[in-house]
Design brief:
This protein is α+β, with helices and mostly antiparallel strands and about 100 residues long. About 40% of the residues lie in helices and about 15% in strands. It has three helices and three strands. The longest helix has 19 residues. The radius of gyration is 13 Å and the shape is globular. The mean pLDDT is about 90.
């Protein structure tokens, strides 16, 4: 799956602990960047088709994005490459964790 090209100066470097509450972010590795006055957390080819979340802080954007991920998994678009990527990545992560 192609990730949207974002101007490097807009990207916010985020490192979260490996706690269960940060699992989606750490497994899927979305990009967090500044979009006008808000922070955006995005996984996907663009803001139209990607999974996105917005907030006044990076943490708010990530929380909003995680809600969007769960909604997208439950209600994917037809031929939804992003939803297929979400399923595959999360299944692989769960299988890896179960084996470890």
């Amino acid at each position: 799956m192609k990730q949207m090209d974002i101007e490097p100066s807009l990207i916010v470097d985020i490192e979260l602990s490996n706690s269960e509450s940060n699992r989606l972010f750490n497994v899927l590795k979305p990009v967090v960047f500044v979009d006008d006055r808000l922070f955006c957390c995005l996984l996907g080819p663009d803001l139209r088709y990607g999974v996105k979340g917005f907030g006044h802080t990076p943490e708010e954007a990530i929380e909003d994005w995680e809600i969007s991920v769960m909604k997208r998994i439950k209600n994917p678009f037809e031929n939804d490459e992003v939803a297929q990527y979400l399923h595959a990545s999360l299944n692989t992560s769960m299988n890896y964790a179960a084996a470890g």
